[in-house]
Amino acid sequence: MSASEAEARMESLSGEELADAWPFLDAAERVEGFRLLATDEAEDLFLGLEAREQATLLRALPRGERQLWVRQLAPDDAADVVQETEQEERSALLGLLDAEARREVTALLAYAEDAAGGLMSPRYARLRPEMRVDEAISYLRRQARTNLETIYYIYVLDGEQRLIGVISFRELFAALPEKTVREVMQTDVVTVPDDMDQEAVSEVFAEWDLMAVPVVDSEGRIKGIVTIDDIVDVVREEATEDIQKIGGTQALDAPYLEAGLVEMVRKRVFWLAVLFLGSLLTATVIGYYQEALANAVVLALFIPLIISSGGNSGSQATTLVIRAMAIGELRLRDWWRVLLKEVVSGLALGMILGGIGFVRVWLWPGAETPVAQAAGIALTVATSLVGIVLWGSLVGAMLPFLLSRLGFDPASASAPFVATIVDVTGLVIYFSVAAVLLRGGLI
Amino acid sequence: MSASEAEARMESLSGEELADAWPFLDAAERVEGFRLLATDEAEDLFLGLEAREQATLLRALPRGERQLWVRQLAPDDAADVVQETEQEERSALLGLLDAEARREVTALLAYAEDAAGGLMSPRYARLRPEMRVDEAISYLRRQARTNLETIYYIYVLDGEQRLIGVISFRELFAALPEKTVREVMQTDVVTVPDDMDQEAVSEVFAEWDLMAVPVVDSEGRIKGIVTIDDIVDVVREEATEDIQKIGGTQALDAPYLEAGLVEMVRKRVFWLAVLFLGSLLTATVIGYYQEALANAVVLALFIPLIISSGGNSGSQATTLVIRAMAIGELRLRDWWRVLLKEVVSGLALGMILGGIGFVRVWLWPGAETPVAQAAGIALTVATSLVGIVLWGSLVGAMLPFLLSRLGFDPASASAPFVATIVDVTGLVIYFSVAAVLLRGGLI
């Protein structure tokens, strides 16, 4: 669409409508719509965007406007935008900031994006311990005019920037004016090291019910704070990654609609090909029993039923265990509790499915099967189902522990991965049961 | 373990150690450990527990201590604990609260646990519009002594408790002391209705980057506020539910280790049985082609390979789409964009797997297959793979849209559900391709 068409279509949108439509607009429509907004609406929209989208939008704006908007960002958000920008454009973007912001952003860029240091803001509220409560409040009043990230907690620092205490705003507010900060502050402060992984930081928030946590370096000096609104994004992002892995894809770097086709295929083909190669073993297993199968083609009827029941129970067990590990409900050393639980559940589930399977096969054993053999086939299917559902549950539940023990992400024990393992071994169970139960009869 | 043994083991634990060990202790150990803590450590531990665990702990304490602890809870947390308590014990528990808290908690109990009203706290900071900024600050100072949930935002109410404005603490603090609240407040306030679903509330937070949002009734009167720390829990909880559904389980009500065996089997058997009944159709399909199969048993070799490739690609597509819908990246009307993307990705993925499959089958067609037929079988497998991987991707991607359109949760399009649908139709594709390509030859 041409710029003038886009303009005509965009002109009628309010900031809120544009924000709603945003993910579904192309680049030209976004820029047009954005530039047509009133300043305060544009500001709400811009600050609400993801860093990736802020970077794209900035790139499309004329230099003057770009400078205006990049200066609206808090240092931690500006650092995220720089990280989303091509390497060769970064220094030009940093050059648009004023000297202090540039220094802050450059310091933040030294941290990995998914570490505590990469999440933190350097603009926290701070006090000296010897201040009186009323002095502290009016001092904070002046600090609040500059751009503080939060004044929910105020940190008390000594002369070397070492963190010696914390006080919540509410406590400071409620304290007697003539006391000193040192008298009313709390000295047991929960902190996180600057290189802590963001998932671990989110667990610290959950454990201590915090609104913000100070980030300290190895000498106990405060470098910034991580606030709970950043943690919401972390929790969402980590869940998305886990879900994509559970589905058997490598985690995407961009939203579904924006991910390029090449990226989409590349992220999916790796596991699909690995699983396919694993699945080739099923042909080997069936090939091994080909003679038996030629004598009793009726056995082929129930192959998909048998293996998909194992895959389904394995998929249930693995997703339950992966999620429980991710939210800290299960630790590595609890594997045996899980094993016990899955033995019992797997047996119960297997017997229920086996019962249904027995009735179905006994009543309708397939057109070509002599009635005399129906009971034998039914028993083979039912017995195999008990074994395979149990086996699927155990593999699904134990694989995340094994992966985690070996240093891999337990979420890699995806539903398709478990299903493939269970397919191959499930066939061995099925044909072995058939060989025993139908000996001298059918095969 | 006896009480005295538990005591001996627990005595050495600090509050933090006990909190870490908590999920893995039995009821007796928890109570012993808790009662042995210093008061401030016990308080940190108690307030950090989930409502379910607080309820269990309270039940195990003597009446006097129970009253002490239940009165430590903010009204919204107390309401959660009451909701986790057996119906017949609820009024006794409410009776332990003081009159005002009892009134607040009872009002909160009227809301569904997963609605905005069920998440909110009635203890928000409020001001009248005609107050001066300096009056407002000292008024808030008195309010802060009582138990406010947050003073991040302060809400400005008229005489009828209708919300007319909001001001952040930072803004109030930075404002000139002699201005009135009305002059410095913002009047465009983002609110949520008290019956809004918690997932929708979490999207409002994400869209507007809020730290708290006021909950209003149908007449615009403020009933309470939802704070962002509650939203972290909502995001985590909803992701857990989605992951469990994607794995083919109904969402569990309790953590994995605490869920009873009966609940565990009940939540899993429903889908497992439904999928099993669906899978029975695979036997019907193969039964239909049984004669062809008897003539070319070699076709049976590749049944698991074919159907699991369809299942895997379907599982990838469905998890990508379900998650994108859950975090608002995809809307119902975007189905055709997804369809286009999946047609291209599905074809590309199918051709890659088909290529690998062709080489494998051509080189090792199975011991019993005449070499002359190997190319035909290989071509059948490869062509089927292209069709089935494409079909799996399309079913996996479109099913969440279909379910959502029909008013169901898109996350019900679990990986096993998609795999089962694709199994049945995949077999039809495989045997149809075989019938065409091998006509006059093998079958």
Could you describe the 3D structure shown?
The structure is a homodimer of 443-residue chains. Chain A has helices at 3-10, 15-21, 27-35, 39-48, 51-60, 63-70, 75-83, 90-94, 99-109, 116-119, 133-145, 169-174, 181-184, 198-208, 228-246, 261-288, 290-295, 298-301, 303-326, 335-363, 371-405, 415-437, and strands at residues 124-127, 150-157, 163-168, 192-193, 212-216, 222-227. Chain A has 443 residues and is mainly α. The first copy, chain A, has three domains: 3-110, MgtE N-terminal fold (Alpha Horseshoe), CATH 1.25.60.10; 119-228, CBS-domain, CATH 3.10.580.10; 261-437, Orthogonal Bundle (Tetracycline Repressor, domain 2). In chain A, strands 1-2-3 form a three-stranded mixed sheet. The first copy, chain A, has a three-stranded mixed sheet with strand order 4-5-6. In chain A, a hairpin with a 5-residue loop joins strand 2 (150-157) and strand 3 (163-168). Chains A and B meet through helix 4, helix 11, strand 2, helix 12 and helix 14 of A and helix 4, helix 11, strand 2, helix 12 and helix 14 of B.
